[in-house]
Description:
By secondary structure, this protein is mainly alpha-helical. It is built from 13 helices and no strands.
Amino acid sequence: MGSLIRKKRKFIVISLVVPVLLLIGFVVLPAIDLFRMSFTNWDGYSSSSKFIGIDNYIAMFHNKDLWLSLKNNTIYFVMHLAMIPIELGFAVLLVSKLKAAKFYKTMVFLPRIINGVAIAYAFSYFFSPINGAFDEILNILNLEMLSRSWLSDPKIVNYVLAFVSIWRFSGYHIILFMAALQSLPQDIQEAARVDGANALQMFKYIQVPAIMLMVDFILFDNIRGSLQIFDVPFVITGGGPGYASSTFTLFTIKTAFTYSNFGLAATMAVAIMIIVIVVYLVQDKLIHKVIMKGGKKQ
Length: 298
């Protein structure tokens, strides 16, 4: 028995060595170097850099365009957040005995499979002010008075881009919700039905509490994705007009590769990591409070 235990431990250690080394090599060490770089004025191509203390952090906090970019990120966050109950509702419908459910599942997940750059290019033509398909649809429906400069009006451009992001990622969330719902024990649900629980009561008291871990993950994915959105605004508007549709990540990349200020860009990257962690911790605490509150009510 002792020999078998030693072999098991040896197997576990060997199995963990490669993942741990990969984690250290591709996550931990780059993160440490990124943090170090945030205190320098490195331009990206010089062989040396100068230590400048917290000057980059001070410059970041005084950069109005960066704050505007972060404000634009909140539009993505709020719109994706508002979609989560709708995505959960669709998931509940698709796991029920719905006709052509397999077809709907495929159609829902299809945008997630398609390349993000291709989607962005397609929507840039869809909302184009010159022969754009969306304006043509409005004309056919005699709603031409609703036509706007969808991609150049600072007041609406971020909502249009957030809609594109929602169209791309909502299917992924629906599939995750479906997987969580399908993993629920059937005997508990059958017992609730026998006791007379209707669909709404099943949803509120059994399905939602049982998949709160998945809800927590999707909320985290929403936070991370909203703060790191890049390809949609980059391809469709390039962050314009001006910085009206720029996002935090897009502004960071432009700072590094357009303005050759890798030190300041590293500072922004550190800041976005801290924001993601802080927001997630706050969200996680709120979710646990909701779960505890729901448990006391029951």
